Amino acid sequence: MNLVDISGLTVTFSQYEGQVQAVRGVNLHVAEGESVGIVGESGSGKSVTCMAVMRLLREPQARIAADRLELAGTDVLAADRRTLASLRGRAAAMIFQDPMTAFDPVFTIGHQIIETIRAHRRVSKPEARAEAADLLRRVEIKNAETVLGYYPHQLSGGMLQRAMIAMALSCRPKILFADEPTTALDVTIQAQILQLIKELQAEFGMGLVMVTHDLGVVAETVDRVVVMYGGKIMEQGPVEAIFDDPKHPYTRALLASMPGQIGGRRRLTEIKGASPNPANPPSGCPFHPRCSLADAGCARAMPAFDVLTPGREAACWRLQ
Ligand SMILES: Nc1ncnc2c1ncn2[C@@H]1O[C@H](COP(=O)(O)OP(=O)(O)OP(=O)(O)O)[C@@H](O)[C@H]1O
Q1: What is the ipTM of this complex?
Q2: DSSP of 111-165, one letter per residue?
Q3: Does the keyword Cell membrane apply (predicted)?
Q4: Model confidence at 145, in pLDDT bands (50, 70, 90)?
Q5: 22 Cα–ligand 1 center, Å
Q6: What is the pTM of this model?
Q7: Quick check: helix, strand or coil at residue 314?
Q8: Contact 22, 48 (CB under 8 A)
Q9: Residues 212-233: tens digit of each pLDDT
Q10: Which residue's CA is the nearest one to ligand 1's atom 26?
């Protein structure tokens, strides 16, 4: 079964200035235990895609439409509030760049993890407390019992990130969405946290969707890569294929702008030209205004995906 099953997803935000077309026809599938990286520059629609399948976007400002939008076999567009609340946590959890978004500053770490466990499972408070301490140990927080009594501001950024991962894992989700989970951390801590996510993914047998602008992060952590640009998928395939033999000119440009140091924090700003304005996206292939290979046809229509091998596909007129 696919843990994530998305076909024809579009997400549009209504704003005073007009409509922002954040996601424009995305198909995405993640199998059990699989790890997938979604990469692309800022604003390409990576986060919104994940938030849409978790139904975490504020509606009706965000309008979500899809031919299929399923999380662990449940149609999230048809799901009621209760089903969604139970899905979030039990089926899927999400971690973010800023752990303060996951924690409430006025409660201790322990209180918040224990409450999360008890919101989803019938366990006594002492059992939940023991489990919370155990989870903190698994994310390599040494003085776990003490840390349970700490407030979020008493932990360093890296420690708080670990505590957020512990809280996300507390309901034993089938899939974890990690949205730029290490971007705010310094390089050594970043590498440790990525390693930890990878180990926990294997240990828990979870699916993983890693959202990042950093190809180095993807190289380190996932099996399959999905490259997004202007609200669309440009190319996808196994991580080795994407790195060794990128097909789409955008993927090639992304790789060329990659910092030498894996996990480095340089932003991908070196591709010439500006990323598309989602309020007024370019016609045809969204990358055509910046693509050195583009011709008039590229502005006319978005090409279909060329399936190079099963699971390896790219959408580029010049490839055809
Ligand atoms: N709540 C919102 N209201 C209006 N526009 C939004 C909202 N959330 C996201 N957007 C817009 O949707 C587009 C896609 O955003 P998204 O956050 O998915 O990009 P991203 O690829 O994840 O990049 P980043 O790394 O910057 O988060 C952006 O242009 C963004 O400004």
Answers
A1: 0.96
A2: HHHHHHHHHHS---HHHHHHHHHHHHHHTT-TTHHHHHT--GGGS-HHHHHHHHH
A3: yes
A4: very high
A5: 6
A6: 0.93
A7: strand
A8: yes
A9: 988 888 988 999 999 999 999 9
A10: 42
